[in-house]
């Protein structure tokens, strides 16, 4: 973007840091101020997120794993023999291993923006699944990318767990699903996890845990801006807040300025009024009907939907 190009001339940043700098300057210049949730995941943020996934209040991860385990054979029954599994965003391998153990895939293609993470993850899988072809692709999966030639003739199965779909605005979610359909092609399948709308107290608690891990996860993006962009955020002058926005069907995470202050980043001043917010993440919650409509609107049909007993979370098998 414009900021990134301008900054690249005056700072010795690599491409990723220039993009980070451009997005931060652009997003903090908006009203209300915001930051992209993709920047949560530096090493510290990724570690904090792993801690979030086992918090008592944070039900999504354990609930999705429970569905993948209990419905694993039904899910495996829709996967053609020798198919290529294309995972959008390569997180921890716990979930994909549940599929790899049940289905005889011809190949596995983890797609993630971080090449280092991919290399580490691929090594572990090659050791445990020596006969599986693992072909990592370092790319931003929200934009079209080329699939590896090695999986050319294989049937394609997309995998997008974790309700990461929920981080997208509705129009972005539709654009992603349409793009995934283009990439995977006619006749492809997609296994996708979607967090469901539910009791607002349960939603609130999942993003405001008693131990304060989510607060540290949220505040960490300010620490990253200070470290990587030379910003001078006083992190202790901001506080974490998650709210459920009922009409938008989404949890919103914010960082609230506790007092009036001015933050300097790359020669620019950003002033905050007391109580002013930086909107750092949205996490959309779907009803089964609204998700089915979104999938249809993106060129997919919902072939199967599975939920846990309490209908907290859902996994869907889509067909292109
Ligand atoms: C990884 C985006 C699915 O939205 O629940 C967890 C990230 N944010 N706690 C989510 C997150 C705060 C998580 N996703």
UniProtKB/TrEMBL annotation:
InterPro entries: EgtD, EgtD_Methyltrsf_superfamily, MeTrfase_dom, MeTrfase_EgtD-like, SAM-dependent_MTases_sf. Keywords: Methyltransferase, Transferase. Transmembrane segments: none annotated. Residues 22-319 form the Histidine-specific methyltransferase SAM-dependent domain. Pfam families: Methyltransf_33. NCBIfam families: egtD_ergothio. This is Dimethylhistidine N-methyltransferase. It comes from Bradyrhizobium algeriense. The lineage of its organism: Bacteria, Pseudomonadati, Pseudomonadota, Alphaproteobacteria, Hyphomicrobiales.
């Amino acid at each position: 973007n414009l900021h990134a190009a301008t900054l690249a001339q005056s700072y010795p940043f690599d491409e990723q840091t220039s993009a980070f700098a451009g997005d931060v300057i652009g997003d903090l210049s908006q009203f209300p101020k915001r930051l992209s949730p993709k920047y949560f995941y530096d090493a510290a943020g990724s570690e904090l997120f792993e801690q979030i996934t086992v918090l008592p209040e944070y039900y999504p991860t354990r609930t999705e794993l429970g569905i993948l385990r209990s419905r694993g054979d039904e899910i495996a029954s829709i996967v053609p023999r020798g198919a290529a599994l294309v995972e959008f965003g390569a997180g921890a391998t716990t979930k994909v291993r549940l599929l790899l153990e049940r289905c005889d895939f011809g190949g596995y293609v983890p797609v993630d923006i971080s090449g280092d993470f991919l290399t580490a993850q691929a090594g572990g899988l090659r050791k445990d699944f020596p006969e599986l072809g693992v072909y990592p692709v370092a790319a931003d999966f929200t934009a079209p990318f080329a699939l590896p030639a090695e999986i050319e003739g294989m049937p394609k199965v997309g995998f997008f767990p974790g309700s990461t779909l929920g981080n997208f605005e509705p129009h972005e979610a539709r654009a992603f699903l349409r793009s995934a359909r283009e990439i995977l092609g006619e006749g492809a399948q997609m296994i996708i996890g979607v967090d469901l709308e539910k009791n607002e107290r349960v939603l609130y608690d999942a993003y405001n845990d008693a131990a304060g891990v989510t607060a540290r996860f949220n505040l960490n993006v300010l620490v990253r801006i200070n470290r990587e962009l030379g910003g001078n955020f006083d992190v202790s002058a901001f506080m974490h807040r998650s709210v459920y926005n009922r009409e938008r069907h989404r949890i919103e995470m914010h960082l609230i300025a506790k007092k009036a202050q001015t933050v300097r980043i790359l020669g620019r001043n950003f002033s905050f009024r007391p109580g002013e917010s930086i909107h750092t993440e949205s996490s959309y919650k779907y009803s089964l009907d609204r998700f089915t409509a979104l999938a249809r609107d993106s060129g997919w049909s919902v072939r199967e939907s599975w939920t846990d007993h309490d209908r907290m979370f859902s996994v869907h098998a889509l067909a292109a």
